[in-house]
Design goal:
- The structure is a single chain.
- Helix content is 80%, strand content 0%.
- It contains 15 helices and no strands.
- Helix 4 packs antiparallel against helix 11 and helix 6 packs across helix 11.
- It is globular.
- The two termini are 28 Å apart.
């Protein structure tokens, strides 16, 4: 689906394309909390519905947009697409369960370590050495995230923090794997992740109790914004490194706060505004400098 669009713009520079794709993916995924809030059901139920609708939308899109067809795309992706789907299951389930056992603030602080962890995995498995400028940007983004959640940060729970760390481990490893295996269909990867998530959450969720609004709201999220945001973030690993993708995706935290204010009149505290500005400025300067290097 994205191949036609990307082929037309890659002349401007692969890294620029990667940055723009990641930003668009972060924008789409930043709507997740809004849909979850509006759905009116628990985190387990939203995870089930997200997985269910993703498992429906991705195969249809592959069949319609990928010239290889669904079977061909999966076969050419090899066993790595299943590994990627399982890692997506691990990251999604880990985050949902983490929030159930510790504070959201703790989860977001641990999540901010994903670019650094991706840098370690990229060095271990791909031999890619992360530039000093990227490390500095990652550190600045982590500081920004810490400031954003400082107002509600607490000691938390060892189990919840451990689950968040497991989720970040799976997320970073998946980004690194997809960076290595360029032939893996990103839509198939997200599709398998959604299928595994729906199956695992089915035994916890209570779909018989959902109202029509819940199905409609989560249908929009699960069929469009959430899966395609993840597809774009995975496509971006073909053009920029896994640490860079992980760092830019942190802008999702800032955008989610903006949407919370827009839709629910939730005024963010001063710490969130200061931390958000640090994240935005860091990513803006980093992306701008990298784009200039390509010119």
């Amino acid at each position: 689906m994205t191949a036609t669009i990307l082929s037309a713009i890659t002349k401007k520079g692969a890294r620029t394309v990667g940055f723009m794709i990641t930003l668009l993916g972060a924008l789409l995924m930043s709507f997740d909390p809004i849909f979850i809030r509006l759905s009116g059901v628990s985190g387990f139920d939203t995870a089930f519905l997200f997985g269910l609708f993703t498992a429906i939308s991705m195969p249809i899109c592959i069949q319609l947009r990928d010239e290889r067809g669904l079977v061909g795309a999966v076969k050419e992706s090899g066993w790595q697409v299943l590994i990627s789907g399982l890692l997506m299951l691990g990251s999604a389930a880990g985050l949902v369960l983490s929030i159930s056992h510790t504070s959201i603030a703790n989860t977001f602080v641990i999540l901010s370590a994903s670019p650094a962890l991706a840098a370690v995995f990229s060095w271990m498995f791909l031999g890619e050495v992360t530039k000093r400028s990227t490390w500095l940007a990652i550190a600045s983004v982590m500081v920004g995230i810490a400031i954003v959640v400082s107002g509600s940060f607490k000691s938390g729970n060892l189990l919840g923090d451990g689950l968040a760390l497991f989720a970040v481990f799976c997320l970073s490893l998946n980004q690194t794997q997809l960076r290595k295996y360029q032939n893996v269909s990103r839509m198939a990867s997200v599709g398998f992740g959604g299928l595994f998530l729906a199956i695992s959450m089915f035994f916890i969720a209570t779909p018989s109790e959902y109202g029509v609004n819940t199905w409609l709201i989560m249908g929009v999220m699960g069929l469009f914004t959430a899966p395609f945001g993840r597809v774009l973030s995975q496509v971006a690993t073909r053009y920029i490194t896994a640490p860079e993708v992980g760092m830019i995706l942190m802008i999702e935290t800032v955008l989610a706060s903006v949407w919370a204010y827009t839709f629910f009149d939730e005024i963010p505290p001063a710490a969130s505004i200061i931390g958000g500005l640090i994240i935005l400025i860091t990513i803006f300067i980093y992306v701008l400098s990298m784009m200039k290097d390509e010119q």
